[in-house]
Amino acid sequence: MAIKNPITAIAAAIKKSADIASYYATEGIDLQRVDDELSAQRMQICKSCKIDGKTGLIMPFYQCRVCKCFMHFKTTLLFDPVESGKQGEKVKTVCPLGKW
Ligand code: SF4
Predict the structure, then answer these.
(1) What is the pTM assigned to this prediction?
(2) Residue 56 burial (CB < 10 Å; 0-12/13-18/19+)?
(3) I need a surface site. Which of 31, 91, 93, 95 has the fewest CB within 10 A?
(4) 10-52 pLDDT, tens per residue?
(5) How far is the CA of 52 from the centre of ligand 1 (A)?
């Protein structure tokens, strides 16, 4: 889809960034962890994940091919700091494809 007015798109991106920064400034970043068993289960699913015939993880840093998150870290988190910032409320950490 073509962007009709790049200035409008840039302004919207700046506003979104300001909203995210404001959320972090007032709410902070919640890095509560899930228990070790759950994070290990999530990581196991990621390690066996296949997307279009390729591994779901990009090596060497175990990044998810879909969300580009570093999965050794993301699988340990109760709340997703990026999605929470975007949505302005705490959002549970999930696989973008619903695998966990
Ligand atoms: S988060 Fe989901 S899509 Fe990404 S590697 Fe893990 S299981 Fe696959």
Answers:
(1) 0.82
(2) buried
(3) 31
(4) 888 888 888 888 888 888 888 899 999 999 999 999 999 999 9
(5) 12
Backbone angles phi, psi at 56, to 5 degrees: -70, -20
| Minimum-distance ligand 1 atom for the alpha carbon of 98 | 2
Instruction: Tell which one of 44, 64, 65 to mutate to probe ligand 1, the residue whose CB is within 8 A of the most ligand atoms.
Output: 64
Each residue of 42-96: pLDDT tens digit? 999 999 999 999 999 999 999 999 999 999 999 999 999 888 988 889 999 999 9
Whose C-alpha lies nearest to ligand 1, atom 6?
46
DSSP 91: -
